[in-house]
Amino acid sequence: MDDIFELLKGKQGESDYENKGVIVQGITGSYGSLHAGKMLEYGTNIVAGVTPGKGGQTWNESIPIYNTMKEAVDATNAKISIIFVPAKFFLGAAKDALEAGIKLLVAIPEHVPIRDTMETLELAKQKGAIVIGPNTPGIMIPELIKIGIMPPMPFKAGKIAVLSKSGTLLYEISDALTNAGFGQSITIGIGGDPVNGTRLIDAFDMVKDIPDLEGMVVVGEIGGDSEEMLAQKIIDSGFNKPTVAYIAGRAAPKEKRMGHAGAIVMGTYGSAESKVSMFNKANIPVAKRPAEVPVLLAGKMEKSD
Amino acid sequence: MQLLEFQAKELFREYGINLLDSISSTNIEEGRKHAKKLGYPFVIKIQVPVGGRGKAGGIQKCQNDDEFEIKYPQVMDLTIKGEKARAILLEKMADIKKELYLSIFLNRSKRCYTIIASAEGGVEIESVKNQIIKEIGLGEVSDELAKEVAKEMGLEGKHAEGVADTLKKLSKLTIEKEAELVEINPLAIMQDDTIMALDGKFVTDDNSNFRHPELEKYQEKTAIEEQAEKSGFSLVELDGDIAVVGNGAGLVMSTLDMLSDNGGKPACFLDVGGGATTESVYEALTLISKLDRVKGILVNLYGGIVKTTVVAEAFLKAYEDNLIDLPVFARLKGTESEKAKEMLQNSKTKIFDSVEEAINSAVMGVK
């Protein structure tokens, strides 16, 4: 599997270093079109759009549209794609992208059937590609590249990695971090679905060896066991950069789905208590509220100095 | 969505899994007819979409008409984990030799279907001992694997064959209907050595509903939930008195947590969603206005995709139409929040800079 930073910005000395091409699938839809514009504004190098049946046209009078991902990849050599098609059509779009050689697939759609996600992941594994999402706000290196739907205001370049299951909490907590002087080296929204292309532990693997990483923030929520797995991995790997967590959903009733498909507690499975206790075991403080995250992080950093 | 036991059993029957005779009813007149048809003794089972029915008195043995007249209404009146009875299932009494456990579920972390089986069943999954766990990918269970599971459960001969057969049918059902979880607990070995599903649990993947029109009849939503779904937001009713409105499931959950920490009681979880419009937020406020227990509204917005002005407009319209006459405590941040604050300046909405202040005022305000 390729290194995420290399995929997002390339190797130093490459002709398109810090300027990687991105293809937008579903660029002519209202959502795709809106966010293609916002990504362009942010500085993301959008090189092509794909909408079956609209090949040969251009989007925004500048970006060529292709009928298939194969044509788009052949023409642009891009390795990154972001998908904005309705959930029903996600599997087809994802297969099209992976077969065409895409190495980083950012899957925005919400309500993708789980089986379709799993089929996508099987194919991605064969092809050695990274899938972020579905139901993700996206991934970004602040002030360099944004592949997603996140607003730009909360984020600032820096040295903290933020991994999050929740979209709005990713914004909220990054905002709190930025205000406290903690910029972000990378932020990854893994998505609120039960099955994620990139799990928290995978996201951790992607960022743990960043050379100038100064700390990590994990934003979790009830449901599943990905926070517990991550805590165990942090214990096992001996990762010792200052890390702080936040878990949403302590007050949520059991057996009720709280908005996200994945946010549901069954029995003790997926409860906030279980996640908090595992993070405590890993010596990772868990903030009670988003505003507490930078405070705890600063405390951790002082100790590690 | 979790189906009721009798609905899960309808699917089990369709796939040839052995079941006792049973009939469901929604009132006692219907129940009496079914009792006659089924014949005593039988078991009265409450139909609610949550577990723990037995402990709560929702499963009762019934020997004769007199018992039936007492127990049917008793069970019908129960509320279990906040859920009222949707129906009552009458089921023939079982002559059980041994109880087993069998389920197939979608393993989030391994990203594949996984079997859990045990030679000890009849209790909740957390207390099922000696679990046999097999990851099975995305396809159906093979003959070999089914036999292996039965063997590992310590079964032999007819019992092993019966369980392997049940497991294969269960896996076909799981795959074809795209279930997140299918569980038989207990799966019983009867005195006559047949294998019988005594209870059934089935959780659908609602995102795949468009491929399964045949499951539509099982969809059960409150009027409010249905309206919420139509308008593109997500709403969970809770039993407190402060309605919590926000954007993004994580942020709304986080607001619920902070509100509870500060002594407030949430009346609902309302995520206006990424595609919120003035109309959809107005719809949401209409729903909230119908919840009698609500004494105040707490709004926590981080405008990214959603413009905070969209929400402000909806509130102004709601005031204009006399839709809401409740105190509103709002924290607005992000896209166009300065403009939104200005819009709401002279309205009944109190604006706060931090979510903490908004929460504290809301808690004080509804007392």
From TrEMBL, chain A:
It comes from the Archaea. CoA binds at residues 28-31, 54. It catalyses: succinate + ATP + CoA = succinyl-CoA + ADP + phosphate; GTP + succinate + CoA = succinyl-CoA + GDP + phosphate. Substrate binds at residue 171. SMART domains: CoA_binding. GO terms for biological process: tricarboxylic acid cycle. The active site is at residue 260. It is an enzyme of class 6 (ligase). Its EC number is 6.2.1.5. HAMAP family: Succ_CoA_alpha (MF_01988). Heterotetramer of two alpha and two beta subunits. This is Succinate--CoA ligase [ADP-forming] subunit alpha. It comes from Nitrosopumilus piranensis.
UniProtKB/TrEMBL annotation, chain B:
Pfam families: ATP-grasp_2, Ligase_CoA. One of its GO terms (biological process) is succinyl-CoA metabolic process. It comes from the Archaea. The keyword Transcription does not apply. Keywords: ATP-binding, Ligase, Magnesium, Metal-binding, Nucleotide-binding, Tricarboxylic acid cycle. One of its GO terms (cellular component) is succinate-CoA ligase complex. Residues 9-219 form the ATP-grasp domain. Its EC number is 6.2.1.5. Its cofactor is Mg(2+). GO terms for molecular function: ATP binding; metal ion binding; succinate-CoA ligase (ADP-forming) activity. SUPFAM superfamilies: Glutathione synthetase ATP-binding domain-like, Succinyl-CoA synthetase domains. PANTHER family: SUCCINATE--COA LIGASE [GDP-FORMING] SUBUNIT BETA, MITOCHONDRIAL (PTHR11815:SF10), SUCCINYL-COA SYNTHETASE BETA CHAIN (PTHR11815). This is Succinyl-CoA ligase (ADP-forming) beta subunit. It comes from Nitrosopumilus piranensis.
